[in-house]
Amino acid sequence: MPKLSYSTVFTASLLATTAMSDQCPTVASPSGIAHHGLDQVELSAFEAQTGDSLTFHDNPNLEKLVNRGPLPPVSERLPAEPLVILPYEDCGTYGGEMRYLARKLESNTSEGLSWRQVQLVRVDDDLRTIKPDVAKSWAWNHDYTEITFTLRKGHKWSDGTPFTAHDVAFWLNDLINNEELYPTTRAPWSVGSRAEVIDEVTVKFVFDVPQPNLLEHLVTQGQFYAAFAPKHALIPFHGDFAEDADAKAQAAGHNTWADWFRLRWGHWMDRTTHSALGLEVPTLESHIMVTAPEETHRDFVPNPYYHHVDSAGQQLPYVDRHRERFIDPSLYVIEIINGNVDQKSLGPIESYSALKENEAGGIYKVILPEGNKGPYIAFNQTHQDPAVRAIYADVRFRQAMSMAIDRDEVSETLFLGLGTPGSALPHGTPTEKPGDQMHFSGFDPEAAGQLLDEMGMKMGPDGFRLRPDGEPFSIIWEYSTQFTGAPDFPTLVAEMWRSVGIDTQLREISSVDLGDKGRANALDITMIYDQPTYPVLAGGVDTLVPPFHINDPLMGVPWMDWINTNGSQGEEPPAWINDLVALGPEMAREAPGSEAWNAALDKITDIHREQMPIIGIFSSLPRVSVINKDLKNVPEITTIGNTSYTGYLQPWRVDQWYYPAD
Amino acid sequence: MTAIDMNPTELSRLQLARRVFHGNRLASISLKLFALLIALAVFAEFIAPYSPQERNRAYSDGAPMGITFVNEEGRLQPWPLVPARITSRDPVTLKRVVRTDDTERWNLKFFVRGSNYELLGLFQSDLHLFGVSGDGYLHLFGTDRLGRDIFSRTLFAFRTSLSIGVAAVLTAFVLGVAIGGMAGYLRGWFDTVIMRIIEFIQSIPTLPLWLTVAAAVPRDWTAMQVYLVMTVILALIGWTTLARRVRSRVISMHTDEHVLAGKLAGCSSTRLFLRHMLPAFTGYLIVDLTLAFSTIMIAETSLSFLGLGLREPVVSLGVMLLPAQSISAIMLTPWYLIPGLFVVVVVLLLNFIGDGVRDAADPANY
């Protein structure tokens, strides 16, 4: 067998790399591109700086992968001004498959979705800067009530149909603001908003009230809500456009056109890919579905009309196929160890040890990017029993319970020592004060006991404290391990509470029951897990103002009823709740990071300092995540799934990850 | 033949039974072991080195620790020692790693001062049967996730499970003998009604019943109240089989000559039943009792294991087995299963004892 000289191969590959990098400015070596830290640039600016026009190339396998017959040449498929992406390390090579895991087909798979998602704008890897993506540029009016987006001329949907300002206006005016599709409006900023088409590539959103944090919303909580929809593919099924929409829907076995429509499109980007109907709905994402999803898996291939090119002119994405497999979460770790997964973030922190132990022999590397804040505990201050309510509504009780928790032990025993003890107050914001992180969060059972004594909760004969009225007292802690982070978390905390004399009875129930009971105001304690860390961008404020949660009420159901019905139902909330309710929108009307925004956040935090409605355990807890170690152009991932300021992998630009050719 | 055997009539019935029982080696040893276990459970506070809720932060999820007689210099010692442990986190996997420290030994000591307790509700003490010197610790059966001593907890759990068993079995026994005996003795419509009731109770599928009961328990009940209700329910189901057995025995004895003789002699029904019928099948009752006891212990364990029965902070064998459900627990922390072995041992002991008692109570063996 002829032996290939190592040095020959080495020289050849070195030459190839050099040749490539000459034409491929990257983040690591931006040769010829002037701006510092730049990771994307508009084509005209790029060509002006390199002094050369960029020739486009595409994936040689594309036609076969998409399997829809001959495709027009790449220069015709790209917009007139594609977005030039500077890869982190190198311009990549096409090919390979990325494999992902999810619970089931119908679940909203945020992480897999973030591999291919696009939005009008994106957030940069500094997690602060908003950058163009689908929109080439934008302009605000002076009081933040109008924003004008300029789209990319010649941009096309994945079926080759032009993508225009009409698709954006259609999304807001005919989908989000359509009362048949959405009896209650979806996006907070869409209240009193409408879109106006100015020309084919210019569209304006008009709001009744200032919305300075719209863009931040789009890259945080609105990250998976694409602000555009393929009008041409959807109007045949839309009741406002097609007279026979209802009839067609009924023929297909649905009650109204809206019912059937929702199977083709939902504000959550993933919705469309839940069934074979999604094959008829084009997208702007990096990968598209060309075969119907199955119960066990769902496949994606590159979008031939994707609007990103690398700095060598190659159309992105590099990876040929995305495969999402649906399996039971208890099998995730074993699947990862067996080398069947290329990227996945995991909930239980314990999985870190098993993954790390098998890392050397595996195809993956384990990373520990910043996650959220771990478990949160909130006492029900609107408890149905007036005597119990009086206890939970007493801030001294909440302070005592917080100080009775030995957070170091919780972290050491249940979270591999990775949790940084801390309160639930915002951490890492300009408004943070020196004592905030450990605000009533240091382990101090004596101080806790003193506060309980002050409340009149005397020690009973059995070693447990009585209610101030002399009756026995127990916290009934109903929980579901979905929100506890570690299954033994309630057991450990209950032990700590018992040792300061507060009897705590545990009861594990299903997440569904827990949600029902929470909404019926029938719990003593509600919990959440993975709450956003801090409100750097728009989204985070939701968790600081009532009902303290994005989806389910964390506390104060009767208060929210009172507020939502202007006092005709529910119970009148205390003044501090009213203050928080007023401050939330006040903060939302200010530009994030502005002085007025900080001032509002500071006022909100002050109320939290004083009232302590939520007991936090950790100020930060990392998230266990694995990534195929062969993948290139993967930056240092500093956070994943931290919904307050980024969307899973969005800042890390999955479309320019690639597998090196062997 | 021994001298005693030559004059058996001078021995009371109990003495005869005891002799037959002790002739059965297995039953005899089982009884002694069981008595020892009961003593362990009754004096759990004293025997257990730790209280059931005490957490050892330094040794959570720790493996069982052994006792050695070899000192740190490698020489044999007459007194027991425990090799010291050093725990740390593996810098890579962040797993807790436990090393045996060859340079240090903790002395095993008897009658050491530890946590405070109240024994049998009578006296307070902090004296524990054994412990180790200084800052050391000894976990014979290892520790659970929160660092609680599984040996100590098993003793307390055994007591809980045992007391459920005793309470439930005694209730079931009284109900079974009284109702079954009456049905068999009185016959007629009373018998018919009782038998239909028993059939009805026995036809109720147990798992759905448990699920219903678990769902129906008010949310503010303490674990102790749940414990009492469970005992009652176990007893209410447990009496039916026994009642049927007693009834059939009573019916079959109606025509026995000694019973007829008693009747003719004008014995009252109570005397007839207690004096002339009951002794004839005491053996069966005792066997039934021991078997019922193990059934009820298993029932408690299974129910708590399924999360339907007792809950933390009550410590029962079932509660302790709950975290042993997952495959990772069996792979990484197999000592979680020790309370399960305890159930197996106790049930086997009870069956051997029952076997011996049946032989002993049967006059044919005298």
TrEMBL record, chain A:
Coiled-coil stretches: none
Pfam families from the UniProt entry: SBP_bac_5 (PF00496)
Segment forming the signal sequence: 1-21
Superkingdom per UniProt: Bacteria
Keyword annotations: Signal
Location of the Solute-binding protein family domain: 129-227, 300-539
UniProt record, GO biological process: peptide transport
Location(s), subcellular: Periplasm
GO MF, any single term: peptide transmembrane transporter activity
Family designation: Belongs to the bacterial solute-binding protein 5 family.
PANTHER family: OLIGOPEPTIDE ABC TRANSPORTER, PERIPLASMIC OLIGOPEPTIDE-BINDING PROTEIN, PERIPLASMIC BINDING COMPONENT OF ABC TRANSPORTER
Entry protein name: Peptide/nickel transport system substrate-binding protein
Annotated source species: Primorskyibacter flagellatus
UniProtKB/TrEMBL annotation, chain B:
Name of a matching Pfam family: BPD_transp_1
InterPro entries: BP-dependent_transpt_permease, MetI-like, MetI-like_sf, OppC_N
Start and end residues of each ABC transmembrane type-1 domain: 158-354
Xref: PROSITE patterns: ABC_TM1 (PS50928)
Topology within the bilayer: Multi-pass membrane protein
Keyword Electron transport included in the entry's annotation: no
Protein transport is among the record's keywords: yes
Subcellular location: Cell membrane
Keywords: Cell membrane, Membrane, Peptide transport, Protein transport, Transmembrane, Transmembrane helix, Transport
Gene Ontology BP annotations: peptide transport; protein transport; transmembrane transport
Stretches that traverse the bilayer: 26-48, 162-185, 197-217, 223-243, 278-299, 335-353
GO cellular component, one term: plasma membrane
Name recorded for this polypeptide: Peptide/nickel transport system permease protein
